[in-house]
Each structure stands twice: as structure tokens, then as C-alpha cells.
Specification:
400 residues, alpha/beta, seven-stranded mixed sheet, five-stranded parallel sheet, 41% helix
């Protein structure tokens, strides 16, 4: 993605402003909310989410914005705290943003969904994956959209993989947050579809420093794989517990096992861990190569702490922009933008996926399981677990 590409797309839509019109007044910016954990324990994926969104905004503005109006992000830090997220969401509604992109934490999102729904203001979630986020309201009336892979598809995807590997005695380690609870239920459901039950379940509070006794209990229960569900450093605590006991069983999970809190926190104990991914930070095709190079230039880094968060937020800004650009009558009300998202105007060739019909009145989740690949921690970084996935990833998948 680059400015030339943006201009080509927006010209095709007939919506790039003509510069230098005599006497033209500078139009007010079109304001878009962005909310997430930009400080605190979840900032390791909140910040790349923000960076990915800002990169897309810069590209779109360089191409002319919306009918000559620049896009402006109104950024709010929820600190990964539900009460703070609720307050910041209310502030966004007071500032009359056209739509909002945000939330990394399921519990924080769930506390604030009613704010957006009541205001009839579209919210697109690029990171938080808890299944209840897009099921709280009946789909036709819902203003809550999502571009991350919900746990309802991540859990079955990982379960399918571990069962194929012969790991059928599963111990689940889940934190007591809304994310951990919903994820645990998704894993249990996915196992039941294979006529399996977890041999052990451990629940724990955030901030726990020692889980060796729980790990030992899982070992005694005969587990041959650990499925962890937490967004914090507690996944590393599980890994270190395995290491301390000399118990060499694999650890698998959803996308948080690709976070620095796990990889850097567990160090060698993280090696070999498997997790669901929508995006692995390798230049496997031109779209990804362009995104990675643009991100590196803008933020002067070759390493994105959580690449999925950055790529999904980047794609989300473009999806929202495509929808807004398709509104020809100037009606940028919440219901109008909602309808535009549900009736997507053209194909968006994104970084994480090719989006043709990402949403509809009946479906507010853009990602399907065919868009996932299995990632693996190798030498302190995430790569493809299977060579065939790396080959398949040359072609960005479409929704099924």
C-alpha cells in the first residue's frame, strides 16, 4: 500500500479532491475515533494497533482524503481498564466522531459496547477477539463490527491442528477476565465437537507469578498439551512452570502467544509454542512487503511488537474509508456508515486478507477460519508452523 496506490483507488471511486481550486475553503477534517490501551500492560499490542491505523490515515490523507477533507484520528487511551474505556468511549460520542476503531481487550470492549450501540455510531474492533463482542446485539441492528479473528474461529482452528498432531489430552489454562472466560468456553466447545473433554482446567487471576502447582496438577491429569488463554504475562508464567518441572509438553493458544509478554517473558520456554495468526510479519507478497516497509520507514523500526495488531488496524482504516467513500449523498450519519459497511462497494486488497464482502446485515465479523495460519515461536520470533502455510500465504485469502 502506498500513496500512488491510494490515489488510483480513490480516483476510481471518483472521490479525490482536485487541488488548487481558486477560492476553495479548507474543509473540516472528518474525525474518526481510535481507542485502545496505549499505556499500561496491554500497550504492547495497543501501540502497534495505533501505529497501523495512523499509517493508513497518513496514506489516505496524502491521496486526498474524503472529498478534500482530511481524516483525523481522535485518540483515546483506555489503559486496558473497563471503567476507563467506558469513560473514553463516552467522550468519543461527545466529540461526534463519524465512527470508531478500537479495543484490544475483550473485557474493556464489552463494558463500552452499549455506548456505541445506543448512539448508533459504528465501532470496528481490530484487535479484541472475545466471541461475545459481535453477538451482544442482533446482527441486523448491531453497530459493532470486527476485523480480528474471533475466538470462536481461533479455538476450533487450533484444536483441529493439535488433534491432527495426536494431542488429545488437553489442559486449559485461562485467566478470569472476560477474554479468558469466553476463550475457555470456545476451547471446550471446540473439543466437544471432536468428542473430547479437557483433562484439566486451571483458572487464575491476572498478575499471578507462580502456577507450578496448577501445571503439576495438569501433568498428573495426563495432559499432553496445554492450551492457554490470557493476554498478559501469565502465559509466560505457565511456560516457566512447565520448564521448572521439566515437563516437555507443547503450549498452544490464540494469538496472544505471539505477544512480547509471552515470547520475551518466557524466553527459551516459549520456543515451539503454536498459535493462530492472521498475519505473520514476513514479506510473502507485494501487499505485505509494502506495508512492512512503510511501517519501518514511518516508525524507524524493523520489528513490530505485535504485527497482527498493526496489520489489522491498518486494514480496518482502509475498510472504513472505502465504506465512507462510497457514500455519495454526503450523509455521514451512523446509520449511513453502517449501511455502507454492510454493502461494501468494491474489493479491498488488504494486508491480512482480500475483503470483498467483509460484512453484511447478518454478519459483523470480517474474518473466517480459512484466513488463519498456524504460527510458531522459533528463535524468539513468530514464523509459519508449516511450510505449506507459507506457500499458501502468498495469496491473501478471501472470506468464506
Amino acid at each position: 500500500m502506498n500513496v500512488r496506490w491510494c490515489k488510483q483507488v480513490f480516483c476510481a471511486l471518483g472521490l479525490v479532491a482536485i487541488a488548487g481550486v481558486a477560492g476553495a475553503q479548507v474543509a473540516k477534517p472528518l474525525r474518526i475515533g481510535l481507542i485502545g490501551p496505549f499505556t499500561g500492560p496491554s500497550s504492547d499490542f495497543g501501540l502497534p494497533m495505533r501505529n497501523g491505523a495512523m499509517l493508513a490515515i497518513d496514506e489516505i490523507n496524502a491521496a486526498g482524503g474524503f472529498m478534500g477533507r482530511m481524516l483525523e484520528l481522535v485518540v483515546k487511551d483506555d489503559t486496558a481498564t473497563p471503567e476507563v474505556g467506558l469513560q473514553r468511549s463516552q467522550e468519543l460520542m461527545q466529540e461526534q466522531v463519524a465512527a470508531t476503531i478500537g479495543f484490544c481487550n475483550t473485557g474493556v470492549a464489552m463494558q463500552s459496547l452499549e455506548v456505541f450501540q445506543a448512539a448508533k455510531s459504528p465501532l470496528i474492533v481490530p484487535c479484541a477477539t472475545g466471541s461475545p463482542i459481535t453477538t451482544k446485539y442482533p446482527a441486523p441492528e448491531s453497530y459493532i463490527f470486527r476485523t480480528s479473528a474471533r475466538d470462536g474461529i481461533q479455538a476450533p482452528f487450533v484444536v483441529e491442528d493439535i488433534v491432527a498432531r495426536g494431542w488429545t489430552k488437553v489442559a486449559i489454562f485461562a485467566d478470569k477476565t472476560g477474554y479468558g472466560e469466553a476463550g475457555m468456553q470456545d476451547v471446550v466447545k471446540a473439543l466437544a465437537s471432536k468428542d473430547l473433554k479437557p483433562v484439566f482446567i486451571a483458572r487464575f487471576d491476572l498478575g499471578v507469578k507462580d502456577l507450578k502447582s496448577e501445571v503439576r496438577a495438569a501433568q498428573e491429569a495426563g495432559a499432553n498439551v496445554i492450551f492457554s488463554y490470557t493476554v498478559g504475562p501469565e502465559a509466560a508464567v505457565v511456560a516457566k512452570g512447565r520448564q521448572a518441572l521439566g515437563w516437555k509438553v507443547p503450549q498452544v493458544g490464540a494469538w496472544p502467544l505471539s505477544f512480547p509478554l509471552f515470547i520475551d517473558g518466557a524466553k527459551e520456554a516459549a520456543e515451539g509454542a503454536l498459535m493462530a495468526q492472521t498475519f505473520v510479519a514476513e514479506p510473502s507478497n507485494e501487499r505485505r512487503r509494502s506495508f512492512l516497509s512503510a511501517y519501518a520507514r514511518k516508525y524507524k523500526t524493523r520489528k513490530i511488537t505485535v504485527p497482527m495488531a498493526a496489520a489489522q488496524a491498518y486494514d480496518t482504516v482502509y475498510l472504513l474509508s472505502y465504506a465512507i467513500l462510497s457514500i455519495r449523498n454526503g450523509d455521514l450519519s451512523g446509520p449511513s456508515i453502517k449501511a455502507a459497511l454492510e454493502n461494501f462497494p468494491r474489493v479491498y486488497y488488504g494486508v491480512t486478507a482480500t475483503h470483498e464482502h467483509p460484512f453484511s446485515r447478518e454478519d459483523k465479523d470480517a474474518m473466517t477460519s480459512n484466513m488463519l495460519v498456524m504460527g510458531m515461536v522459533k528463535n524468539g520470533a513468530v514464523t509459519f508452523a508449516y511450510a505449506e502455510d507459507k506457500t499458501r500465504n502468498l495469496f491473501v485469502q478471501r472470506k468464506k
